[in-house]
């Protein structure tokens, strides 16, 4: 029996064991494929057998990665990636990059795996550098920057970005250059440097214009554009990249969106949209509690939801106090369903911002609401008159000097 047929049979047995739920047996069989393939391939000159060995080995690596991903075993997944180096040394560089990206993507489903993933990336970057696999090195370094961004390690991320940009500009690799500039924009936004965040985004878009930009990368560019415009409170432009809460329900009826309609991320948007449409603060707060992970994990979403909640509270307060000239603060708090102290603080802020005119009488625990004062133009008119008189005096003085 040839080594090729042997490994193919092992793959079939491993797949059957995996389907039956015998993970330990499947794991051992896939590992056996790796060792058998390497041994059997050492002395053969048959190209087809060699290729079959490589295909079997690649299948075994990916299957092992899937097993450890499902088991949430980050250390074992890291071992598989490091183990794959022997296989990658005998394959095409493009295939190597695709395989290692596939294996690294499995970390996404494993919680609290940042440290293991970071060490795995660092080790493989060093290996790619030693093997002079420059494209793979850049790809792994770009992923490491993304990981540093997720863990708010902005300083090392910027240092690695500077190094990457120097190398990429020399190689003129537009695709990775687009990704790195986009990451640079996100890092600068993370540290609050909006000017450099916009400049990096512009550089990313410039690089993307000269290549075919994959849909996911284009979506990431548009997302960052919308975020930066929203940070500047340029909501008109941001709206061209995003949608308002009122649009959520209509968007979810589109045929392409129906298969995602029951996902928690989508349900959270629907809950927020419903609460906003009904101007219901209690429903808004309930949505924030029920979908805490979906709505509070991202700082951008959290920030804008806080602003939306503040606006919603303001609108409710204005509607409640509108018919009154004097109203107890406790009554307003009861109607709006909030703590008295928080309502009092918000009303005070609204008065200072001149959202409405009034005063808080804390002794009586009341809010006094005034009509909007009519503009008095007397002062402005007096200033204008004095300015005109000044011009006349200057003119007369000039004529007097000429006569003299």
TrEMBL record:
Known SMART domains for this protein? PAM, PINT
Keywords on record: Proteasome
Using the record's annotation, list all stretches that form the PCI domain.
Answer: 209-374
Q: Which GO terms describe its cellular component?
A: proteasome complex
Record bears the keyword Oxidoreductase: no
Describe the family membership recorded for this protein in Swiss-Prot or TrEMBL.
Belongs to the proteasome subunit S9 family.
Name the chain's protein: PCI domain-containing protein
């Amino acid at each position: 029996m040839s080594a090729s047929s042997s490994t193919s049979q092992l793959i079939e047995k491993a797949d059957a064991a995996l389907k039956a739920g015998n993970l330990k047996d499947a794991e051992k069989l896939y590992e056996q494929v790796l060792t058998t393939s390497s041994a059997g391939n050492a002395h053969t000159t048959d190209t087809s057998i060699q290729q079959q060995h490589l295909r079997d080995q690649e299948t075994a690596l990916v299957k092992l990665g899937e097993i450890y991903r499902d088991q949430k075993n980050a250390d074992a997944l890291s071992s598989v990636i490091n183990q794959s180096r022997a296989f990658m040394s005998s394959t095409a560089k493009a295939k190597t990059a695709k395989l290692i990206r596939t294996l690294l993507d499995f970390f996404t489903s494993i919680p609290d795996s940042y440290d293991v993933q970071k060490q795995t990336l660092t080790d493989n970057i060093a290996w790619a550098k030693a093997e002079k696999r420059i494209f793979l090195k850049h790809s792994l370094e770009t992923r490491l920057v993304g990981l540093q961004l997720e863990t708010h390690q902005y300083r090392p991320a910027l240092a690695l970005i500077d190094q990457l940009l120097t190398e990429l500009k020399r190689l003129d690799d537009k695709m990775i250059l687009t990704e790195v500039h986009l990451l640079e924009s996100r890092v600068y936004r993370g540290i609050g440097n909006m000017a450099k965040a916009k400049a990096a985004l512009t550089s990313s878009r410039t690089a993307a214009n000269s290549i075919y930009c994959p849909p996911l990368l284009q979506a990431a560019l548009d997302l960052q554009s919308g975020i930066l415009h929203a940070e500047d409170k340029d909501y008109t432009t941001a709206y061209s990249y995003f949608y308002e809460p009122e649009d959520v329900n209509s968007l979810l009826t589109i045929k392409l969106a129906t298969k995602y309609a029951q996902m928690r991320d989508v349900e959270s948007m629907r809950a927020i949209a419903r609460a906003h449409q009904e101007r219901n603060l209690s429903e808004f707060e309930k949505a924030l509690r029920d979908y805490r992970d979906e709505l509070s994990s991202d700082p951008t979403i959290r920030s804008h939801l806080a602003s939306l909640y503040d606006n919603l509270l303001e609108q409710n307060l204005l509607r409640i106090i509108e018919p009154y000239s004097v109203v107890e603060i406790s009554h307003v708090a009861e109607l709006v369903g909030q703590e008295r102290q928080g309502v009092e603080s918000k009303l005070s802020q609204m008065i200072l911002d001149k959202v409405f005119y009034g005063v808080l009488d804390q002794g009586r625990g009341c809010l006094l609401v005034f009509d909007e004062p009519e503009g008095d133009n007397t002062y402005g008119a007096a200033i204008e008159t004095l300015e005109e008189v000044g011009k006349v005096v200057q003119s007369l003085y000039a004529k007097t000097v000429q006569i003299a």
